[in-house]
């Protein structure tokens, strides 16, 4: 059996009295691309935010790269160097250039030399196809370019897992593909990915598995072919009819 | 009106030297107090936003305690109240080394630090929470996220209100005359006492304060432009 990168065991989470995750059981193996979808408020963002400890869990256990993050005293910053995350709102640091954004964590966390970090950063910018933007400030980039820089910034820490939280939801339609293309490349290179997205075309082409959530539960888990051809649950059928109809 | 203006009192006798000494003392006490206020303000302003309750409570108590008591009372507190609590040897040492200056500096710094704290907190709270999340998500510790990302952005946002607060600090240094710090206002009072020319003395003091403050405001405006976050804030001119 392949290495399990992420394992949720009966994970539950509450925001106050509201139960946002209910008894989640899910395993993601190394190299796998899992798309998490579902209606708004279904807990999909919360689910992936648990993986790097941005949200704590209150029940069950969550093991990431062999380490339980539910255990008290576990080093979150250590874990987070191995789990990259890309946000809906890009979150580049506006007072730093693209290059400074990408080299910050490698220099300050990994202790890499400035020259080496810059070399890696430039190679990553090449990989996300904007090598000429190194000295620009985020405000001078388009949304699609900012999101690709954000991906490069996460990759600079050489993570084993990449989490994407609706990476294209804040983008103009014509910029969505440039980001999805970079993510597709990443998937082909064997990166372990959990992607919350409404881009069903991406799910169909790139995902190994689709997880459908509703009301804090994993309702359905299937290969993209099976999920899109014949979703089993009524909730998933209804969701698909709404987002695929246009 | 039969008041006889006599502007020459400002450059005859000791007046010029007094004004100069007053100016130097005002600049010294204000500069040191500003450094203290900035340090306390950044530290407590940042602590008021961290995800750890005891730190927030500590910083909030500092702010509420020091900004809600008049500056004059703090001057008296640090000058008359604190020294007797210290060991005899230290008391002797500070009274031989300008105790009033240091007491005044502490009072100003700690009081304005509490006010600066609120300015910095509002700057930090203007930054989307997700900036902090993005920082820690790449492995920075909370401290690193504040030091490298959150505070540097906040400081750029708060230059205008921080300028006002800095000018307030400089002007409030005049309160230190009540514990006999020989700063600018103290010296203008002294000129008035010796020459009985109140308007001339006060005019000299007023002009010096005005030049100092306008100069600082101009420098801060340059700082604001120099460190402006590209594209973030629309500004005129």
Q: Can you put this structure into words, describing what you see?
A:
The complex is a heterodimer of chains A (246) and B (237). Chain A is of the alpha/beta class. Helices cover 37% and strands 26% of the residues of chain A. In chain A, the strands form two sheets. A six-stranded mixed sheet of chain A has the order 6-7-8-3-9-10, with helices on both faces. The longest helix of chain A has 16 residues, at 173-188. Chain B is an all-alpha fold and 237 residues long. In chain B, helix 2 (53-67) packs across helix 5 (99-125) and helix 8 (159-172) packs antiparallel against helix 10 (198-227). The mean pLDDT of chain B is 93. The chains are: A alpha/beta (246), B mainly alpha (237). The A-B interface holds A 52, 54, 76-78, 80-81, 83-85, 87, 89, 91-95, 104-105, 108-110, 137-140, 150, 153-154, 157 and B 128, 130-131, 133-141, 144, 148-149, 152-153, 156, 227, 229-232.
Count of DSSP helices of chain B?
10
Low-confidence stretches of chain A: none
Q: Nearest-angstrom radius of gyration of chain A?
A: 18 Å
Mean pLDDT level of chain B: 93
> How many distinct beta strands of chain B?
0
Mean pLDDT over the full residue set of chain A: 94
Main CATH class of chain B: Mainly Alpha
Major sheet: arrangement of strands of chain A? 6-7-8-3-9-10
Total individual domains of chain B: 1
The profile of the biggest β sheet of chain B is: none
Overall shape of chain B: globular
Q: What's the assembly state of these chains?
A: heterodimer
The ordered H/E elements of chain B are: HHHHHHHHHH
